[in-house]
Amino acid sequence: MRILLSNDDGYFAPGLAALAEALAPLGQVTVVAPERDRSGASNSLTLDRPLRLRTAANGFYFVNGTPTDCVHLAVTGMLEELPDIVVSGINAGSNMGDDTLYSGTVAAATEGYLLGVPSIAMSLSSHQGKHFETAGRVARELVERFARQPFGKPVLLNVNVPDIPWEQLKGQRVTRLGRRHKAEPVVRQTTPRGEIVYWVGAAGPAADAADGTDFYAVEQGYVSITPLQIDLTHAAQIGAVNSWLAG
Ligand code: MN
């Protein structure tokens, strides 16, 4: 099996090393990841300068670009054959609900999906990142399942794993995205040179964490698996916008 890995935390991130180690027994693993932390990069492509592909001592490739750049470059130029699967992560921190719009972890998987490859985004629920090996094992079981039982249609899975030992996982749930409250406001600071700067604030707490959502599953100790799609069309509002224009 040809497996392409990427992430948004950077090629040096422990979550990526854990993912590569977990998936190595399943086939030929190629890692192409950003040269620095690009969390929050969403689906951005670098169009204003060339991308440079370099190799780290451990064999991972790293790119002076975004997660999307990495997968795009790997699939459309670098790899001789299309990978059988793209796996992104393991992110340090969950990517649930509205996070998926901002996440570089999800974006790297989305790029694989858009290029015709089954793709999985893997995130560990806490920023402390104590149990990457739990998420690595979840990833391995999912990729093994793809190998013996192909899904049969294009698929993009957003997977969030509680940051707990494997034995404590309650199981897995196929979920829908929940929603977050508005983000915290920016944090204003003054630099030593007297300049005012702003830090983007933290994501809001869960607003919709009802039974059936990703938030609920992870909170209850389950692995959350959400199938994602890309079409943002609000089909139910097409009629309402038509009426509004005719009014
Ligand atoms: Mn990240």
Radius of gyration based on Cα positions? 19 Å
Task: Kindly name the structural category.
Answer: alpha/beta
The H-and-E topology, N to C, reads as EHEEEHEHHEHEEEEEEHEH
Total E-strand runs: 13
Tell me the CATH topology.
Stationary-phase Survival Protein Sure Homolog, Chain: A
CATH level 4 superfamily: Survival protein SurE-like phosphatase/nucleotidase
Strand order of the largest sheet: 3-4-2-1-5-6-7-13-8
**Principal-axes shape call:** globular
Terminal Cα span: 57 Å
Can you count the helices? Answer: 7
**Biggest sheet descriptor:** 9 strands, mixed
Strand content: 15-25%
Number of domains: 1
Q: Give start-end ranges of low-pLDDT stretches.
A: none
Bound molecules: manganese (II) ion
